[in-house]
User: Fold this.
Amino acid sequence: MWTYETSLVWNADETGTERALGRPDWAISSPPEFGGKSDKWNPELMLVASVESCLMLTALSVAKRQKIEIKAYSSRATGQMAKTADGLRFTEIRAHVILEVDLGVDPARAEQLIRIAEKYCPVSNALKCPLHVTVEVHTR
Amino acid sequence: MWTYETSLVWNADETGTERALGRPDWAISSPPEFGGKSDKWNPELMLVASVESCLMLTALSVAKRQKIEIKAYSSRATGQMAKTADGLRFTEIRAHVILEVDLGVDPARAEQLIRIAEKYCPVSNALKCPLHVTVEVHTR
Assistant:
């Protein structure tokens, strides 16, 4: 069992500071469309970033175990939020992963890394809304 | 409908950089217990922070609408992750909120702000695992 602890303090208006032991302070705000600041991370972006980064770190860990060398990894992710009868709700999160592997690696096997990561990533597994992942593999 | 977009690039080992347009870059890593760095935010902490900050910003917005003046707001939050047959899974997230309001405000009404925020916070509503929130109200 592992515990992840954060703390938060409200500063003024729609802004606050998130803290976690040993990490840099993190200024947060409401999204600009709800009265917040566009130069600060907001909870919606943080949720998308946590899914996106968990997917990558899980994939890297699977690659290591399978002894597949990753040359480069990048991704883009989007979260869609809609107004529903119950209030604002995330309807889906999408991620597009660009993976670079050695010429000798089967691209299908590289894509499979991401599919396994999707299955094991604890953050995306904590979500109710669907996660759609597309993968692009480059060899060099 | 609103879209929240992030991007991620892998740096080396178990670290990467999360980006969102106009916001500061955000260095991320696996948790130290899975081979990452203890001085960087990890996806598990980011998930907890996104729930915690969404709860606060939703509560502040409800307070504004109800014309209840908040003097101070802070919280602590924890996410529990356990090893299950399906891999690592979040089992629950807990938040403890400390709210300070004017002497004239009914503490029960102040607590109610948080209960309403729980109901409407889009991030906690995106989660499968239960969120338990306790509230402490101080008047001054």
Q: What stands out?
A: Chain B is about 30% helix and 40% strand. Chain B touches chain A through 75 residues (CB under 8 Å). The mean pLDDT of chain B is 96. Residues 13 and 35 of chain B are 9 Å apart (CA to CA).
